[in-house]
Please model this.
Amino acid sequence: MIHNATIDTLLNRRSIRKFKPDPIDDDTVATLETVAQHAASSQFLNDWSAIRITDPAVKQKMAEFGHQPYIATAPLLYVFVLDEHRNAAVAASKGVDTDSDTFTLNASYRFAQAQNDAVLALHAMETAAYSLGLGCVILGSLLNDVRGLIDVLQLPKYTYPVLGLAIGKPDQEPALKPRMPRSMQFFENAYPADDEATLAPLAAFDEAVHQYYDLRNTDRPVDAFSDQIAKNATADMAGHAMAAPVRDQGFRLDR
Model:
């Protein structure tokens, strides 16, 4: 492989769930937020926003939604939001009837693109943070209680929470999690028709993942990768917010 500082930053990324209490200085915050703004944006609609959580009481609510106490200890905490509310307001200021059938910013396509943009911005911020020696963890767990999250953050119509990001100076050094063999994830020209051939490296990957989790927590064995996939592919997660299709959660949310 070719190596440089950017590639090595990405290759060495790992989720950090324990932070030193040191605050993040204003210059670093400004840098991270500006980098996020420079991520790609579909049609340059800038259809995402991020809410910086500084109130300890709100941080505690985030930890409760995520069922992860460490969220409340993060020196820097964001919730990234797909945001067509701002664009709807801009359109309305230009005379567009946002209640008409011709209004398109509330369509499922724009929902998907705005969600993509929010994720791209978050990833840019995360990579920048790692490059500065900070640690991060992406928080899909905040979506355990989407309605509660919407209420606490006072999210208006045409917005929806996407992911959280906790940032701080690392107070742990976890092992790198193994990655799937490239042959199982990168294909040429078309998706392979032979599932058996695609899954040929699965047994070795299962063993690598199992060993990783065993070393990380010897008191709590974790299933092999393929068993984790099988478990998550069933109705066992019916109570989890992310188990419900997007169409059932709704985009046009009024508070």
